[in-house]
Amino acid sequence: MSDPGSGVNKVATVSLTVNGRRRRVRVPPMKRLLDVLREDLALPGSKEGCGEGECGACSVLMDGVSVNSCLIAASQAEGARIVTVEGLAPARGVSRLQQAFIDFGGAQCGICTPGMLITATELLRRTRGRVPSDAEVREALVGNLCRCTGYQKIVDAVRAAAGAGRATKRPAGAKRGAKRASGAGRSKTRRPGRKAK
Predict the structure, then answer these.
(1) Where residue 77 sits, what CATH number does that domain have?
(2) CA-to-CA separations, 7 to 12, 28, 76, 161, 163, in angstroms, rounded
């Protein structure tokens, strides 16, 4: 049983903007932002992979920067603008980036997909007006781990989304809209030396 004076059982009201909507939640101040999003705000798109900031599956945009929501305390998100994978798509359908992931087979088991989409969204905003190189995409996605695709399909999808409106080549046999995106995520906390392969 925790000491009543320790503050462990205290709750606080946290105000933040999530996917363009002002939200207020009463939660323990040290509750992880990931858990607040999934449990208190019913936004399960952000996934928990490792819970240690290593895999990037829980990535969200916090004031425009991709972060690991498993490492952010609710109190740190006070007043922040949060975008989850649910906030990337237009009211109907999917975003250009999500469609590219479908077309290029960049989403397979889907656990890493929300984090990949979030981090790639940040990259595409930074490189707006040009198509980032393979190396730039790999560097941007360095904190996001995928065990299914070997990364090249993800890199191709991100570059294709950046080049939308120009002539972009879809892989042979890929069908537009073959399935719907499930929605299924650089100051992301990353360990040095980790590279997307």
Answers:
(1) 3.10.20.30
(2) 11, 9, 17, 47, 51
